């Protein structure tokens, strides 16, 4: 395919911070890749570079953040030559690609949800998308519908289901005055805790627990955007351990 205009749209939701949403490449060195990196959306595009190095076509644009929140997000990519409109959740970003070429030359297939192994170092480090997509439309073709009706050749690789499974995790929202108290285990000599959290506040207490028999306590907090762990032990000389990250 050699196109001057492209319109690509889809919706996705995921709890993963990394993953290839779609990818296409050609023998001339052209490529287009849309992926999640550190929960941000990254569009990599190259309409062509020359071997002398005087024309460098690689263009990379990043938009959004915290997109691994398992909520639906919509993407629209509109390209006319080197002019691109990238819209994420109704927020549009306009840019022009580098280089001097206007056509996107894709000789191979376009893949959604991952990229085929090409032997290039860049393809190894990229994770496949894990989550749900719907309303995939590529230049007027309803990809989701064609895939469901098995009208694509070749079609899916691996386990692809046409339903969206909700995660079993139950989130808890805390305001400035609420907290969750759970019973401890006095007979256990091991303290282990794990959780995921998200906040816009630079400071706050995440966890506090007293040890049994007045042996001390443990505290996890955020201070100026950094997570700190404080362990106080009453029966030893060096009675306080502080770990910050």
Automatic annotation (TrEMBL):
Record-linked PROSITE patterns: LAM_G_DOMAIN
Coiled-coil intervals, chain numbering: none
Gene3D superfamilies membership: 2.60.120.200
CDD domains reported in the protein's UniProt record: LamG
Domain of life per record: Eukaryota
Domain (Laminin G): residue spans on this chain: 1-164
InterPro entries according to UniProt: ConA-like_dom_sf, Laminin_G, Neurexin-related_CASP
PANTHER family noted in UniProt: CONTACTIN-ASSOCIATED PROTEIN-LIKE 2, PIKACHURIN-LIKE PROTEIN
Protein name: CNTP2 protein
Protein's organism: Lanius ludovicianus
Source taxonomy: Eukaryota, Metazoa, Chordata, Craniata, Vertebrata
């Amino acid at each position: 395919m050699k196109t001057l205009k492209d319109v690509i749209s889809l919706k996705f939701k995921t709890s993963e911070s990394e993953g290839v949403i779609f990818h296409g490449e050609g023998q001339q060195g052209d490529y287009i890749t849309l992926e999640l990196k550190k929960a941000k959306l990254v569009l990599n595009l190259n309409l062509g570079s020359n071997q002398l190095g005087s024309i460098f076509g690689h263009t990379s644009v990043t938009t959004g953040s915290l997109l691994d929140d398992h909520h639906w997000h919509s993407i629209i990519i509109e390209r006319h030559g080197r002019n691109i409109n990238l819209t994420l959740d109704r927020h549009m970003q306009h840019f022009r690609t580098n280089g001097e070429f206007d056509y996107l030359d894709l000789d191979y297939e376009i893949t959604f949800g991952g990229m085929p192994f090409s032997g290039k170092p860049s393809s190894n480090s990229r994770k496949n998308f894990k989550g749900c997509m719907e309303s995939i439309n590529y230049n007027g073709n309803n990809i989701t519908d064609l895939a469901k009706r098995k009208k694509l050749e070749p079609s899916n690789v691996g386990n692809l289901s046409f339903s969206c499974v909700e995660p079993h995790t139950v989130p808890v929202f805390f305001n400035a005055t609420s907290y969750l108290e759970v019973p401890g285990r006095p007979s256990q000599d091991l303290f282990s805790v794990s959780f995921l959290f998200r906040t816009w506040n630079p400071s706050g207490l995440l966890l506090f627990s007293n040890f049994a028999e007045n042996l001390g306590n443990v505290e996890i907090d955020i201070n100026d955007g950094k997570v700190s762990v404080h362990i106080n032990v009453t029966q030893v000389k060096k009675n306080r351990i502080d770990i910050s990250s």
